[in-house]
Amino acid sequence: MAVIDINADLGEGFGIWELGDDLALLDVITSANVACGFHAGDPLIMRRVCAAAVERGVTIGAQVSYRDLAGFGRREMDVAPPELTAEVLYQIAALDGIARTEGGRVAYVKPHGALYNRVARDDVQARAVADAVRAYDPSLPLLTLAGSAVRDVAEGLIVVAECFADRAYTPSGRLVSRREPGAVVHDRDAVVQRAVRMAVEGTVVSVDGGDVALDARSMCVHGDTPGAVELARSVRSALSEAGVALEPFA
């Protein structure tokens, strides 16, 4: 039987600004990537999401990013490795402290946005992120793109591959840049079909029509797109109907 985790990015509001329906998504997913305040989120939001996740038995992960509130963490930055390591360490520690006051804990780490894409191809930045995870708790899995450069530099760490039900893939297995048209798949039926194929067959169709092999243990559904909650529910339902077991990886 195929086994997959469903994760989503949560806590991405800031102050009075709200983004996505965190509570509704927590009823669908098995793992929550909680923003740690560098691209989105604030202490109050972090606490609310952690409390709700613990109440529902959803695994909590630290969604770490570049320090980029204005750009929502989607602007690529050249940050010196020691500084990047320290900033990722800061984010993990902050969220873990809040999660523990609510009866939970940070169980894994996932980079966000530009940092996620950068560490998939850049050994230096990937090593800086891995160093932060290792310094805080080497037992924490690092969630990253299948085929990411993180695997080559994360000595001693558990690296878990993920796939994206609603993102377009290049022939090399990378995500199509959000600057490109068609980077996000919005058609519900197409997303559902892709999700089932990813989980059952371990493949996805790239933008050129070819098959890309994936060895993913977790599947991301985005919470900041129109109709995100209903789409996530459809994905979960289709996976269950296909006989896929839904279980967190951490």
Write a structural description.
This protein is α/β, with parallel strands linked by helices and 250 residues long. The protein contains eight helices and ten strands. The strands form two sheets. Strands 1, 2, 3, 4, 5, 6, 9 and 10 form an eight-stranded parallel β-sheet that branches. The protein starts with a strand and ends with a strand. The model has no long low-confidence stretch (mean pLDDT 95).
Strand content: 15-25%
Q: Summarize the main sheet.
A: 8 strands, parallel
What is the element string, with H for helices and E for strands?
EHEHEHEHHEHEHEEEHE
Helix content: 25-40%
- The first-to-last residue Cα distance is 19 Å
How many strands in all? Answer: 10
Mean pLDDT: 95
Radius of gyration: 17 Å
- The total of helices stands at 8
Tags for this entry?
250 residues; alpha/beta; 8-stranded parallel beta sheet; two-stranded antiparallel sheet; 8 helices; 10 strands; globular
Describe the secondary-structure layout:
Layout: E1 3-10, H1 22-26, E2 31-35, H2 43-56, E3 59-64, H3 81-101, E4 106-111, H4 113-119, H5 123-136, E5 142-145, H6 150-153, E6 159-164, H7 188-201, E7 203-205, E8 211-213, E9 218-220, H8 228-241, E10 245-246
Parallel strand pairs: 1-2, 1-9, 1-10, 2-3, 3-4, 5-6, 6-9
Antiparallel strand pairs: 7-8
Please provide a brief summary of the model.
With 250 residues, the protein is an alpha/beta fold. It has helices spanning 22-26, 43-56, 81-101, 113-119, 123-136, 150-153, 188-201, 228-241, and strands spanning 3-10, 31-35, 59-64, 106-111, 142-145, 159-164, 203-205, 211-213, 218-220, 245-246.
